[in-house]
Amino acid sequence: MTLNVESTAFRSTIEAVRAVEPRIADAIVNELRDQRESLKLIASENYASPAVLLAMGNWLSDKYAEGAIGRRFYAGCQNVDTVEAVAVEHAKALFGAPYAYVQPHSGIDANLVAYWAILADRVEVPHLRKFGKRQVNDLTGAEWAELRAAFGNQRMLGMSLDAGGHLTHGFRPNISGKMFDQRSYGVDPSSGRIDYQALRETAREFKPLIIVGGYSAYPRKVDFAAMREIADEVGATLMVDMAHFAGLVAGKVFTGDYNPVEHAHIVTTTTHKSLRGPRGGAVLAQPELADQVDRGCPMVLGGPLSHVMAAKAIAFAEARQPEFATYAQQIVTNSQALAEGLLRRGIQLVSGGTDNHLVLIDVHPFGLTGRQAEQALLASGVVTNRNAIPQDPNGAWYTSGIRIGTPALTSRGLGAAEMDQIADLIHTVLSSTTPSAGSKAKYQIDPVVADQVSKQAADLLAPFPLYPGVDLG
Ligand code: DSN
Fold first, then answer.
1. Substitution candidate for ligand 1 out of 44, 268, 384 with most atoms within 8 A of CB
2. How many domains does the chain have?
3. Domain boundary residue among 255, 290, 319?
4. Active-site residue list
5. Coil, strand or helix: which one is 114?
6. What are residue 277's phi and psi, to 5 degrees?
7. Are residues 292 and 167 in the same domain?
8. What integer pLDDT is reported at residue 56 of this predicted model?
């Protein structure tokens, strides 16, 4: 039998790994098996193409290349320069951005690069003006101490965690919550949607340096044109973290007022979620911030991972193909079909539905915490994650919500009909689960139901093989 290119490549890789450490080879093989078998509804996960995966396994990984294209701290970076330049070219074309930076290793890194760029560009410290804002990177230790004290007064306005914001948008468990004096905007309790008037009023009163748009658990479109208007009114920089919905921007599902690249001063993203690339981050910016963002490494980041930048270039190139727009639209079609299926079965959703790739279920009416619901679903072969909901009575650890998303299953080829069946499985599990007395974590589910749902989930996936071209033997 002649094997196709992908099967040959992955088999050879695993064979080479097995020769050194068989447990790692087994883990790689087992991960593919587990992914093939699981009904993955984690809103932030996806399946990268074989070309993306294979672009990461090579000697580009061996090269140090701190600095920027054409300005490295190491000699011999000509091939890394090519890789990074191609990735930048595709990112700019894909998103219609004037400037792109593809070195960040993750979304958190991308946000830190952006925050530093905004601070370095915008901060005004009267007694340090003699240095000029462009020289802020060259201050002495004593001057840095003064500057840090001044930075302590910098203000950030981001979406609250229970409304769907992210830790890196100024919350205490993350360094952004220490660097910035943070205030949050949230959602209108009755609609579950961002209250732009309240946001405007908070911005007027708080006068933030940065307004952060974007989310990791908000199921609706965001009006970035309105956010920019508010930012302009109060003299803030608008930064949008589009990590979750970058694929919907790339696929032209979010256009006009809903496209952050058209409205924000600076946009950060991950490259793996709805964008379906390698694990990593990127920054898009208006030209006035480009110089500062370009200093991301070594100012904020360790040496760029050239092999991952290569995979980003492949993913961006893939997303520029017309099929990607069809895929992005299908993500939302599926998400809305899933939401409708859940609503029809009487399940309560935050904001009553979805405009994007994710749905947030309020499990409170089932008498469950998010943690109990998440574990009961997992025991039934349905992989989700618990998430806080607005004004969550169970806090960020136990929560009262389950976040589900469609990018991964859409990559596998599942459509609206399958989403309705998934809604049925979720309803079956949640209505067959009871909390254990006095516990926010323990629960009971009828093992027959859990077993039946696991089998139904496997049957549902069977016609949609994952990586059908990859045969590991
Ligand atoms: N971990 C990502 C998510 O699941 O949304 C965000 O950092």
1. 44
2. 2
3. 319
4. 64, 66, 241, 270, 273, 279
5. helix
6. -105, -160
7. yes
8. 98
